[in-house]
Amino acid sequence: MKQILVLAGLLIRFVTVFGHRFSIERGRMNSALDFRQTRSLNSRFNEMISILFRFP
Residues 6 or more apart from 46 whose CB is under 8 A from it? Predict the structure, then answer.
């Protein structure tokens, strides 16, 4: 159970870092938009994980 949580945390961190770097590469004009999309993706992923852990 603990390993799954650690894995999920690493995945969330990777998605955040990757999205942030991608937004920087695309340009400063779209960086805020891309960062917002990354954050919404993270919240969706967190919802999926909480649903998974709700059921024993």
Answer: 12
**Block mean pLDDT (10 aa), the chain, length 56:** 84 76 62 64 77 72
pLDDT of residue 27: 65
Look at the block and give the residue holding tokens 């999205």: 19
Strands (E), 1-56: none
> CA gyration radius for the chain?
13
What's the CA gap between 43 and 40, in Å, rounded?
Answer: 5
CA distances for 52 relative to 1, 5, 33, 37, 45, angstroms = 11, 11, 29, 23, 11
